[in-house]
UniProtKB/TrEMBL annotation:
This is Fe2OG dioxygenase domain-containing protein. Gene3D superfamilies: q2cbj1_9rhob like domain.
Length: 287
């Protein structure tokens, strides 16, 4: 992972800056499926549905996570910002990723044991509302092998952030992921379910989608972790408090970060996956 937060930027960030009508995180107290699709279609940058996952479901998922035989922790060589993790990583080869997907698939699905399968509830509703609009939803594939459906992670502070400023648009086009069909998607939406969080851990979201020339000038290769804060100062920023039970989704081509927790002993734990239109009638999801 590249970390250039402390460097003095010698370039001006270049890329896409959207108007205020787009650059907003719309807040609701229940899941609004039309709004979810509006985010996927690029009509608005993001949405947050407050407290829609009840405490009983959250506690059960977290119990399943912390007791899973597939749980990876610091002693397993996780990155500095990761406390615990279940799922497959796209940071290495597609072959390694596919093997990880297959190895962890049963334990990933077991995260929702005894919850009435809350994930299936979400997926079925998204699929239904897309179908009503003539669109399909399926898991992304690579050479006939399915991608992971979601992953679950708990984070540690890394200085001023849990996750430093970055964007996700360049990752899927990395050389080691060539052939993975998600590389054809221009606008990727990240979906997160907050299961554990104390004070802090806010979403920081800047109105800039940096271009390839900017990433190259900053020395980014297969990731973009560590945009200098000085280089982001001229762009509008939204700061969104994140609470347990919230589901939020947003355009991850824009620079975003997770602020530091005030107490690093308190877990900040999320389930996440990505979505995007492969073509006007097909939405893919993967993790």
């Amino acid at each position: 992972m590249t970390d250039v937060l402390s460097s003095t930027p010698s370039i001006q960030l270049q890329g896409i800056v959207h108007p205020d009508s787009y650059f907003q995180i719309v807040e609701k107290n229940e899941i609004d499926w039309q709004l979810w699709i509006d985010v996927l279609r690029g009509k608005v940058a993001g949405a947050i549905f407050r407290g829609v996952v009840n405490q009983e479901i959250r506690q059960q998922i977290c119990h399943n996570f912390w007791h899973s035989v597939s749980l990876k922790q610091k002693s397993d060589g996780l990155p500095a910002h990761a406390k615990a993790f279940i799922g497959a990583s796209l940071s290495k080869s597609l072959e390694f990723y596919s093997e990880e997907v297959e190895r962890t698939s049963q334990d990933i699905e077991a995260l929702f044991d005894n919850t009435g399968d809350f994930y299936l509830f979400l997926l079925d509703n998204i699929k239904k509302h897309l179908a009503d609009r003539g669109c399909s939803l399926r898991v992304a594939e690579y050479n006939g092998r399915q991608a992971g459906k979601y992953k679950m992670r708990s984070w540690l502070n890394t200085g001023d952030f849990v996750i430093v400023p970055h964007d996700d648009s360049g990752v899927l086009k990395a050389h080691h992921l060539q052939g993975f069909e998600v590389g054809q998607i221009d606008r990727v939406v990240g979906v997160l379910i907050c299961l554990e969080n104390g004070e802090g851990g806010d979403l920081h979201y800047w109105n800039i989608s940096p271009n390839d020339e900017t990433r190259e000038a900053l020395g980014f290769k297969s990731d973009s972790f560590g945009y200098p804060l000085e280089a982001l100062a001229d762009f509008d920023k939204i700061t969104v408090p994140i609470c347990p039970g919230d589901i939020y989704l947003f355009d991850v081509t824009k620079v975003h970060a997770v602020g530091a927790k005030t107490d690093d002993e308190v877990n900040r734990t999320t389930i996440s996956w990505s979505m995007g239109f492969l073509d006007p009638k097909t939405v893919l999801h993967w993790a």
